[in-house]
Amino acid sequence: MSTADKNKREKERFVALSFCRADMLFELNDTHHIEFAAGATPGLLGKKPEDMAQTRFTDYIHEQDHKLLKELFVTASNKGRLDDVTLYMKSPSGKKIRTILSGYRVPDFHNHFFLAIKVDLSKPTLGKIDTPERDDETNLMETESFSQVASERVTSFIHAGGDAQVSMVKVNHLDKLLDTVGATDKKKLLGEIGKVLNDNSIGGDTASRIDKDSFSFAHSDKVDTLAINAQIEALAAQIHPDGDMVQAISSTLDVDGAGMSEDQVARALIHTMQKFCENKGSVRESALSDVLSGMMTNTVKNVGFIKDVSKSMDLDIFFMPINDLKRGYVHHFEGLVRFKGEHKDESPFHMICLAEEVGIICDLDMAIVKKSIERVHHFRQQSFLPPVAINLSGASLSNDVFMHSLHKMLKDAPEMSGHLMFEITESARIEDLPKVNKILQSIRKMKFEVCLDDFGAGAASFDYLNGLDVDVVKFDGPVVKRAYQTEKGGDLLRAMSRMCHDLNIHTVAEMVEDKAMADHMQACGIDFGQGWHFGKPHPDPLQYSRNFAPVNKVRMGTK
After folding, report:
1. pLDDT band, residue 78 (cuts 50/70/90)
2. Residue of 171, 472, 528 lying closest to 323 (CA atoms)
3. Segment 416-453, tens digit of pLDDT
4. Run of H or E residues at 130
5. Count H helices, E strands: the chain?
6. Is 80 left (phi over 0), alpha (psi -120 to 50) or beta?
7. What is the pTM of this model?
8. DSSP state letters, 292-308
9. Which of 150, 331, 359, 415 is deepest in the core (most CB within 10 A)?
């Protein structure tokens, strides 16, 4: 074999190896024009690799990410590489394709960038426009859209070697000025404030309007927030003589990592900002920075606490009875996590939400499952114990590693079948219903029953019921209360209960507070009730043994 043939063969081998984690490969010159392309470009981008030579790489990126790409390349020039950056490419029809991009600059090849790009199917954005919700007056993102986009872009910016921050800008007396000026000037001022924040944000479009006079934006640490404040004040002064009273005050969140991954750092920043926006109340402007900084410190501390608890399993499980409405006995329990130490007397709700938002819920869920199994073993050695339902987040159900570990754990513990159930919480986080349903059915075949929580909380509940084959649905507390308080609510609950029974699915009503409410739920056709009328969560489920069924073999399938 000639030297040329050997070199060609080696090149082909390296390209083939690269495709182990990529769908497309690119070599870009110093002007970011394509020198070489390979892979699934015809199907994804509408062009053959050979036809892409000397075209601009930017031409294949969705318009919303053009500025972001430019910033990433500038930032990566210092680090020399890009690690798992999220970027949206553009299909021939202009639709967004979510991709994960990695690459590095190679000095031996004229400092060209070599990129490996993989289509990311973890989120259902392939082939459809995913448009953020926007504030009409400023064209800035609504807070929920900002939370999703900002966490993704901050992560990408960090992966490219940059230092990202999130700042809040409080514009004092803006509301008074807007009441003074005319509609045209109001629209102009708000639009220009939005433009200033967007222009200085990561990707040129990562800013949000929190309320009438408060804004937030994600940006590089190179951005001078004091200069941003001055620009906003100058805009107000130009609009109206009274604009001099406007004062912009900014507070910036930053974090050194605290043992978190880049993705977790980004999520923690956004989580802190969102929580502040929800509860800022009447915080004095002078205390804004201290409050935000304190909340960020608390977020990092709580993330560390959750990670430690997930490793040590140093937590408690409390058991809340769920009773048969017709016969009165405890049909099964819901196992509820309770934390120890300084969080002993707190509701675990905030910690669980934080774990979900920061992306560490899988570890916490696994610790809860293991601890629940341990406690069920303990009490079953003492006496008969009805089945115990363990909560699983939709995010955990969508995680391949978590579900593989859970499946193996259950397979290795056949003695627990019929004694454990799994209750799906936060079902909105399930991104691939058919895939999750397939795994759930394998669990059900091992005789571990599955319950869908918070049913009726939104129209999407019926999509989850249609996509997931389950044994039980638990009606959301507000649905139950409306059914008790209004005739229309009762009629709706009866109709949903009949639908579930027609599908051979049992029903639970939560937040049942007294006997009258329990009787009403039974009249609506509900099978089981949960609430303080039947008992509060307790660390020892055997305290409810007087209400256990006389026949010590209770199955969900028996009415």
Report:
1. low
2. 528
3. 999 999 999 876 678 788 989 998 999 999 999 999 99
4. none
5. 18, 17
6. left
7. 0.71
8. HHHHHHHHHHHHHHHHH
9. 150
Structure tokens at 231: 């620009």
Q: Under DSSP, is residue 238 helix (H, G, I), strand (E, B) or coil?
A: helix
**In sequence order, what are the residues at sequence separation of 6 or more whose Cβ sits closer than 8 angstroms to the Cβ of residue 281?**
none
User: Token pair for residue 121?
Assistant: 């199917």
> In this structure, how many other beta carbons lie within 10 angstroms of the beta carbon of residue 463?
14
Strand partners, 115: 26, 103
- Given a contact cutoff of 8 angstroms between Cβ atoms, the answer to whether 474 and 454 are in contact is yes
Q: Which domains does the chain have, with CATH numbers?
A: 3-119 (3.30.450.20), 143-301 (3.30.70), 317-476+527-544 (3.20.20.450)
Q: Phi and psi (nearest 5°) for 460?
A: -65, -20
Instruction: Quote the CA–CA distance of 172 and 458 in Å, as a whole number.
Output: 37
Q: How confident is the model at residue 126 (pLDDT cuts 50, 70, 90)?
A: very low
Record the tokens describing residue 357, joined without a space: 């938002």
Q: Hey, how many other C-beta atoms are within 10 angstroms of the C-beta on 441?
A: 12
* pLDDT at residue 93, as a whole number: 87
Question: Could you tell me which of 523, 549, 545, 547 has the C-alpha nearest to residue 533?
Answer: 547
d(CA 402, CA 356): 14
Q: List all residues 6 or more positions away from 341 whose beta carbon is below 8 Å from its beta carbon.
A: none
Long-range contacts of 535-539, Cβ-Cβ distance < 8 Å, separation of 24 or more = 535/320, 535/321, 536/320, 537/318, 537/319, 537/320, 537/336, 537/338, 538/318, 538/319, 538/320, 539/316, 539/317, 539/318, 539/319, 539/338
Contact 358, 350 (CB under 8 A): no
For the cut 90, the answer to whether the pLDDT of residue 501 exceeds it is yes
Question: Given strand 164-172, what is the order of strands in its sheet?
Answer: 207-211, 214-220, 164-172, 247-253
C-alpha 258/C-alpha 278 separation (Å) is: 25
